[in-house]
Amino acid sequence: MGASLVLDSARLRENIRVQRAHVAPSELMVVVKDDAYGHGAEWAAREAAAEGVRGFGAYDLATALRVRRVTPRGTRIFTWARMTADEIREALAHELDLGVGSADQLDEVVRVARANGATARVHLKIDSGLHRNGVRPEDWAEAVATALAAEREGILRLVGVWSHLSETSAADDDASQRIFLDAVAQAREAGAELETVHLTASAASWERAELRGSLCRVGAFCYGIRSAGGAELPGIVPVARLVAPVERVEGDAVVLGIGSLDGLPSTLAGSEVGTPGGRRRILRLTETECLVEPWPGARAGDEVRIFGDGALGEHSATTLAERIGTVGEEILVRLSPQLRREVSER
Ligand SMILES: *Cc1c(COP(=O)(O)O)cnc(C)c1O
Question: Is the pTM of this model over 0.70?
């Protein structure tokens, strides 16, 4: 038995229940991009759907189609990656919700929908200051007009207006919200009948009720990954633990069967992991092995936790990440797809 990422379904569902109650009456959209932050998109989507979640944020087409296969009819699956014409055609065939962030992408969606006799469900994105993607405020009226003209033609439904916050400061986010609300108001004045407006991801959805729209796009917190440098969150627990077996004991080191090829950053050397003998430091990482300080009675087959919920004194993915100057998401997302994912019986 090699290393595995052990997934706790009950915890994922509990985190989802806690967030839903916390953001109500806003709806919770569970974000499953990046293979559900390394946890596995199908697993996460199935569990969330069983919990009653009917909205998912998939980012790209491939992830959206994986979610479509495992969720009930009527589930809304939101994508926001820039798509080719072929991808748009497939997205329309699977009734995905398209986040559109530029005039030329909007034109492309209109063109593909018209050519295929489909009706595209579009959420138009305003650039509220992040400058990553999004229609600039000065181009907004024209983009809305294009969408509404396509709506009259029956090939598009302008269902939403959305944006994304930088979360660099409360003042920046407040300024973004003003731009966002202005764009929503303009769209409505132009005749848009929006089903939804959305602006916030995990941190702002949790901490800043006044920024929430009718829906909150939450990824990290569903998986119990708190913000780096942020406080622990009441009721939110890590959903995954990364465990590796002891392969052998070599005098001054215990050797675990996990290494950098499994996705562990080699910069983790010096961090602590949870062993049956308590917390021990990682001495060194090779491509396939992780050498750890020994503990009395260590033997092959012992289970060591690289990260988890602290039950063996180990760090969470986030505290581990903070020690090497990154975020918990990065630790999880980097884990190799070949690493076994195992759902825990609890
Ligand atoms: C990743 C992402 C989210 C979710 O962010 P978290 O901080 O993980 O909750 C929401 N919206 C967009 C557009 C994203 O890219």
Answer: yes
